[in-house]
Specification:
The complex is a heterodimer of chains A (113) and B (115). Chain A has no helices and 12 strands. Chain A is mostly beta strands and 113 residues long. Chain A has one domain: Immunoglobulin-like, CATH 2.60.40. In chain A, strands 2, 5, 6, 10, 11 and 12 form a 6-stranded mixed sheet that branches. Chain A has a 4-stranded antiparallel sheet with strand order 3-9-8-7, with no helix packed on it. In chain A, strand 8 and strand 9 form a beta hairpin. By secondary structure, chain B is mainly beta. Chain B has a single domain, classed as Immunoglobulin-like (Sandwich). Chain B has no helices and 11 strands. In chain B, the strands form 2 sheets. In chain B, strands 2, 4, 5, 6, 9, 10 and 11 form a 7-stranded mixed sheet that branches. The relative contact order of chain B is 0.33. The interface between A and B is medium-sized, with 25 and 29 residues.
Chain lengths: 113, 115
């Protein structure tokens, strides 16, 4: 069974600083996708970044980047130059070849002005 | 470009009642998935609809059922409501059942409270 683990229920970061959110997953598949979603108080889940498992290069989207370690089944999210608008719940998600998504329990990120 | 829309936004029901939640997918999307998000938890997969059929199902009882219409919109029905069904119900759409890295696009959810 696929599981996604986020071991940091809460994190905080000073505005303009860098923070890393951790995620590990368990799967026996070799072809899959990984995602980070952000859920602000408005409740809508917003895609932050995605990574294809067959790509060795880490994905980057502006201030957001990932550290994907396939052998270790680790998929961490780095947020650089943190902004107040980055405050939200962050969910790591695994997508299996059958297009079924599994989510972690989330990390609540606070940005301190 | 219309995103995923869900209705209603909030709903209060009594134990034993039945509820129907509705979802319109993002324009151009043909696959709809439903998730249950309990307070303080991540979304849990309920089921996925593609070409008007349930294609995959998570670990939810038969009290949870759904439907997809020819215009790709979808309904989630829950019968015999329990207190534990209180949660945020998220609808997500995507393009194609197995197509590449198509991410999920989520609606704002329906907050269901069962009393």
């Amino acid at each position: 069974a696929q599981t996604v683990t986020q071991s940091q229920p809460e994190m905080s970061v000073q505005e303009a600083e860098t923070v890393t959110l951790s995620c590990t997953y368990d799967t026996s598949e070799s072809d899959y996708y990984l995602f980070w979603y952000k859920q602000p108080p408005s409740r809508q889940m917003i895609l932050v970044i995605r990574q294809e498992a067959y790509k060795q290069q880490n994905a980057t989207e502006n201030r957001f980047s990932v550290n994907f370690q396939k052998a270790a089944k680790s998929f961490s999210l780095k947020i650089s130059d943190s902004q107040l608008g980055d405050a939200a719940m962050y969910f790591c998600a695994y997508r299996n070849p059958g297009n079924q998504f599994y989510f972690g329990t989330g990390t609540s990120l606070t940005v301190i002005p | 470009d219309a995103g995923v829309t869900q209705s209603p936004t909030h709903l209060i029901k009594t134990r034993g009642q039945q509820v129907t939640l509705r979802c319109s997918p993002k324009s151009g999307h043909d696959t709809v998935s439903w998730y249950q998000q309990a307070l303080g938890q991540g979304p849990q997969f309920i089921f996925q609809y593609y070409e008007e059929e349930e294609r995959q199902r998570g670990n939810f009882p038969d009290r949870f059922s759904g439907h997809q219409f020819p215009n790709y919109s979808s309904e989630l029905n829950v019968n015999a409501l329990l207190l534990g069904d209180s949660a945020l119900y998220l609808c997500a759409s995507s393009l194609g059942r197995d197509r590449g890295s198509s991410p999920l696009h989520f609606g704002n959810g329906t907050r269901l409270t069962v009393t």
